[in-house]
Amino acid sequence: MANELDIVGQIKFAFYHLLNLILFFGVLYYLLKKPISEFFSSRSLKIKNEIDKATEIIDDAQKTYDENSQKIDLIESELTELRNSIDSVTNKKISKIIENAHLMIDKIKNDTTDIIKLESIKLTNDIHIEVLNKSIEFTRYELMSDIDETKDTMLISSFFEEVKQNVISNN
Questions:
Q1: DSSP secondary-structure letter at 145?
Q2: What are phi and psi of 147, to 5 degrees?
Q3: Chain segment 100-109, per-residue pLDDT in tens
Q4: Which alpha helices (DSSP H) does the chain contain, by range?
Q5: How far apart are CA 38 and CA 48, in angstroms?
Q6: Alpha carbon of 77 to those of 64, 74, 85, 134, 150: distances in Å?
Q7: What mean pLDDT is reported for the chain?
Q8: How many percent of the chain have pLDDT more than 70?
Q9: How many angstroms separate the CA atoms of 164 and 84, rounded?
Q10: Alpha-carbon distance 142 to 152, whole Å?
């Protein structure tokens, strides 16, 4: 029986402690419910506000990124247009320079041809003048020497032959 009393005493002891524990938790719940719920409520509100601010910052950053991306795309397209324009102008200038060079080459060729023709005519005239001077010298020499009719005829014939040969060789 002592064992029974001991078990009943232990159950009573456990029951009172359990009741004390339940009461303790009940009092804690009653006393701490409002401050804890306010704490968690304010904490969740603070976290929500921080999330909203972060979302707003992220949205602003995304807008800024999108604007900058558009500006970069615009700059890239303008650079492409500028490069194409520069290439076009460069190609036009190069073709103009080449065209001018070809025109200058043609002018130089024509001028050179004209100079060669004029020099050729000048040389031909110089040769004719030299031939005439030699014939005059020869004629003076012959006039100085005793001239007779046969020599005179031969002289004129040879002169005509020389002139004839010069005329034929120059053509």
A1: S
A2: -105, 135
A3: 999 999 999 9
A4: 2-144, 149-170
A5: 15
A6: 20, 5, 12, 84, 102
A7: 87
A8: 92
A9: 71
A10: 9
Joined together, the tokens standing for residue 112 give 């050179």
Measure the CA–CA gap between 94 and 105, rounded to whole angstroms: 16
Residue-wise pLDDT for 124-166, tens only, equals 888 888 888 888 888 777 676 666 677 778 777 888 888 878 7
d(CA 111, CA 67): 64
**Radius of gyration for the alpha carbons in the chain, expressed in angstroms and rounded:** 64
Cα–Cα distance for residue pair 130/1, rounded to 1 Å: 174
Q: Say which amino acid occupies 170.
A: N
Whole-angstrom Cα distance, residue 79 to residue 70? 14
Cβ neighbors of 151 (< 8 A, separation 6 or more) are: 142
What is the pLDDT, as a whole number, of residue 1? 52
